[in-house]
Amino acid sequence: MARPLPTARTRPLDPPAELGRLRAEHPISRLAYPDGHLGWLVTGHAAARAILADPAFSARSELQRRPVGDGPREPAGPGIFINLDAPDHTRYRRLITGQFTVRRMRELEPRIEQITAERLDAMERHGPPLDLVESFALPIPSLVICELLGVPYRERERFQRDTAVIASLDATAEQARSATADLARHLHELVLRKRADPADDLISGLIRSGELNDEELTGVAVMLLIAGHETTAGMLSLGTLALLSDPSQQARLRADPSLTGGAVEELLRYLSIIHLGPTRAALKDIELYGVRIAAGETVTISLPAANRDPGRFPDPDELDLTRATAGHLAFGHGIHQCIGQQLARVELRVGLNALLRRFPTLRLAITREDIDFRTDSITYGVRSLPVTWHLGEAT
Ligand code: HEM
Fold first, then answer.
1. pLDDT score recorded for residue 258
2. Ligand 1 pocket, Cβ-based, cut-off 6 angstroms
3. Which residues pair with 31 in a beta bridge?
4. For residue 273, which atom of ligand 1 is closest to its CA?
5. How far are the Cα atoms of 42, 50, 309 from residue 330, in angstroms, in the given order?
6. What three-state secondary structure class fits 53?
7. Which atom of ligand 1 is nearest to the CA of 379?
8. Measured distance CA(295)–CA(278) in Å, rounded
9. Pairing between strand 130-131 and 57-58?
């Protein structure tokens, strides 16, 4: 019998247990969508990879149903290539990949270190306790995206205000809509100014390519800002919580900072914060793993379930910072695999490492039971993370 997508968690850092039970029965099961649609849920790692790599499954939003929540899905606006298929997607992807150059990423790293150090200085000045989401996890990705897109310093506060509202689940739908419109307006103004006076940033680089109009450029900028902000912020706060919750793994990492790169991959796998998708629509009838997916049916790929598949990762529910994580799906797979993953990795590596080193006695300022988890947004995470440390011990 088809059931709705399981979202209830017994242990907040583990996916809903029901997903594991479904995966043990079959990697692909029937899923009842809130609008009455009968589609599919993919919980097995190999099946998830196969579907994400198969052009017979479309990323076009208007063809898909929502696995949670309600309301119809609109076609992608100009520049929103995450919801396009080849060849429309290919055109954007090629242009934007060309801007995520090794040189630009290398140049960003010292800026990320500086931005992180400034946030840690501000935390130290403020003193304990404080909310790590507000003081650390949200501002770092927000400032890094501003840096990447070339948002001038004097305008960054305004951008941070808008993106914080969009990322916050406390905001009403109306507040989020108005903040998104505000952001799009500001980014459109920015595009016009860059056109008149180009610099060395990503938007200027795209303008130089001469292939996108102002609406498309604005759409790309909005998407990068939203896609790169909430996700990385979620990983910084939830990653910290996972480390604070596991003293032995944390001690290993503190003792050997060279583990940080691998630790980031394991945290990405273990936490799989994109937890309600991605979704795809079958463009034709397809037989897969013994089930027949009919044209038009929506398929929800559970990244948390796939990344905890014991067939792929032994003892998948153990956080093991030194395990082999190759092939994890936290950044997706196939043509839509996250375009910002290298940038996100640098932010997580630099951010988590610097935080642990600056505050050796960092710990939660509330009990684990009192942590406010956000379960209904695309990104799983915490709304706030009150932390504390011994005064005078910051290094
Ligand atoms: C830890 C942080 C991040 C996580 C977990 C994450 C996760 C993902 C996932 C799962 C997808 C695939 C979606 C799908 O298949 O439909 C994706 C796509 C994407 N991500 Fe990320 N992301 C992160 C950071 C970033 C950053 C920093 C940026 C930009 C600066 C970014 C920009 C994008 C874009 C533009 C796409 C769409 C790519 C396409 O459709 O070709 N992400 N991300």
1. 93
2. 59, 81-82, 93, 145, 223-224, 227-228, 231-232, 235, 273-274, 278, 330-332, 336, 338-340, 343-344
3. 3, 39
4. 5
5. 15, 15, 13
6. coil
7. 5
8. 18
9. unpaired
Are 254 and 313 a contacting pair, CB within 8 Å?
A: no
Strands 57-58 and 381-382: what pairing?
A: unpaired
Tokens coding 128:
């304990």
Contact 51, 308 (CB under 8 A): no
Alpha-carbon separation of residue 101 from 89, 205, 283, 339, 342 (angstroms): 19, 11, 34, 11, 10
DSSP 215: H
Q: What is the pTM of this model?
A: 0.95
Q: Give the whole-angstrom CA distance, residue 103 versus residue 84.
A: 28
Kindly give the confidence (pLDDT) of every residue in the chain, 395 residues in length, as a single tens digit, with 9 standing for 90 and above. 789 999 999 999 999 999 999 999 999 999 999 999 999 999 999 999 999 999 999 999 999 999 988 777 788 889 999 999 999 999 999 999 999 988 888 889 999 999 999 999 999 999 999 999 999 999 999 899 989 998 887 888 888 778 777 766 566 778 878 888 888 999 999 999 999 999 999 999 999 999 999 999 999 999 998 888 889 999 999 999 999 999 999 999 999 999 999 999 999 999 999 999 999 999 999 999 999 999 999 999 999 999 999 999 999 999 999 999 999 999 999 999 999 999 999 999 999 999 999 999 999 999 999 999 988 788 999 999 999 999 776 55
Q: Please check whether residue 3 is in contact with residue 32, taking contact to mean a CB–CB distance below 8 angstroms.
A: yes
The pair of structure tokens assigned to 337 is 């695999």
Name residue 300's beta-bridge partners.
Answer: 41, 279
- Say which residues have a Cβ less than 8 Å from residue 183's Cβ, sequence separation at least 6: 159, 162, 163, 166, 222, 225
CA of 365 to the centre of ligand 1 (A): 31
Question: What's the 224 CA to ligand 1 centre distance in angstroms?
Answer: 8
CA of 232 to the centre of ligand 1 (A): 10
Which of 143, 187, 331 to probe ligand 1 with, by most ligand atoms within 8 A of CB? 331
Ligand 1, residues 52, 92, 338: which to mutate, most atoms within 8 A of Cβ? 338
Cα distance between residue 277 and residue 73, in whole Å: 14
Residue keyed to tokens 């003293």:
247
382 three-state secondary structure:
strand
